[in-house]
Amino acid sequence: MTPPPPIGLLAELTHRCPLRCPYCSNPLALAAADGELTTADWARVFRQAAELGVLQLHLSGGEPAARRDLVELVSHAAGAGLYTNLITSGMMLDAGRLAALAEAGLDHVQLSVQDSEPGSADRIAGFPGGHARKLAFAGLVTQAGLPFTLNAVVHRQNLDHLGEIVALALQLGAKRLEVAHVQYYGWALLNRDHLLPTRDQLDRATVMVEQARSEHRGVLSIDYVVPDYYATEPKACMGGWGRQVMVVNPTGKVLPCHAAESLPGMVFESVLDRDLASIWTSSEAFEMYRGTGWMRGPCQGCVNAERDWGGCRCQAFALTGDATATDPACRLSRDHSLLDVAVQRAAAPAGDFIYRERARVKTSVL
Does the pLDDT of residue 239 top 80, yes or no? Predict the structure, then answer.
């Protein structure tokens, strides 16, 4: 059965980035600049995505503005009829380049912040002075009249500032705030003991989000992604493996999610060798965990199987070493207690981060 087309395409234009965030979603083995897709390659990907039925294009990285051809890439995407969302740190863009992006057809800007307090934000990002530059860029976005989302990845070391982060979003003129708890694989898994919030922090944050939603309804929309480590039911990761979203990484590999390369033994096809539509509909990697046929108990036959689609394969592997295992976020998983162990380990005082670096960092299953 041919799957319906994906709604969105996450284009990871580069792994280059001035920041060193310890929860970065990029893989531990970062792609070098000389291995990135060319402008012509990306233009072809955007055309193929539009023909496939993709509606939304998220231009990400690393830092997408590290690409000198970013304006040209936005122009190609807009020309293909895609809605373009730039996910950026704001560190490598000035007023002139932002105006050029808007002229090329950029539809939306999503700016990341690491905290509301400058010292803490700069420490988490591993970049002194970065927070002030982000705030200045936010001002340029609002002056340009572009729709604007503030994205805050939250964890134990900034979650107590959530009220101030909401206030910052309002101050900067954002219409949407994404409060996303860290998802623990890749760089975040290395730093889990320093990032995982306490249950008390999580509960207070959840209450605060609901209060802020009520207070600022019609002014600020707040999306809230909670951590799986306190869950009893798994989430449909990326809307389900190979169901709603596809990712193209800097070298052209096509992935069901941004962390899929953490799964061993899987072969992800490249846009340099095969068109996007055929990869989406029939590649072995996308078929591997699509639907419910791959599931075993307790997932197989579960009434929630076509709601959560088995949860997160990358999380299952990160915690159990088995990508086919029931996501431990599910209370029915035989490995559910691993989450309790992780929470207990994270109760110790937070230490120094392992910052995102170019060199590969090796880690074992935790």
Answer: yes
Q: How far is CA 185 from the centre of its chain?
A: 11
Euclidean distance between CA atoms 351 and 361, whole angstroms: 18
Amino acid at 320: T
CA distance 225 to 21: 19
Give me the mean pLDDT over the 294-304 stretch: 94
- 């233009």: which residue's tokens? 43
Q: Which residues pair with 247 in a beta bridge?
A: 10, 255
CB 125 within 8 A of CB 152: no
Helix 199-215 vs helix 162-172: angle between axes, to the nearest 10 degrees? 30
Q: How far is CA 92 from CA 68, 69, 153, 256, in A?
A: 10, 13, 20, 29
Whether residue 17 contacts residue 66, with contact meaning beta carbons closer than 8 Å, is answered with: yes
Instruction: Note every long-range contact of 165-169, with CB atoms under 8 Å and residues 24 or more positions apart, other chains counting.
Output: 165/113, 165/115, 165/116, 166/208, 166/212, 166/216, 166/220, 166/222, 167/116, 168/113, 168/116, 169/220
Nearest CA to 189 out of 19, 15, 9, 28 is that of 28
**What whole-number distance in Å separates Cα of residue 264 and Cα of residue 323?**
9
User: What are the distances in angstroms from CA 365 to CA 13, 116, 224, 338, 353?
Assistant: 29, 33, 28, 12, 18
Cite the DSSP H helix spans in the chain: 39-52, 70-79, 95-104, 118-125, 130-144, 162-172, 187-190, 192-195, 199-215, 276-282, 284-288, 305-308, 313-320, 337-345
Q: Quick check: pTM over 0.85?
A: yes
- Percent of residues, the chain, with pLDDT higher than 90: 91
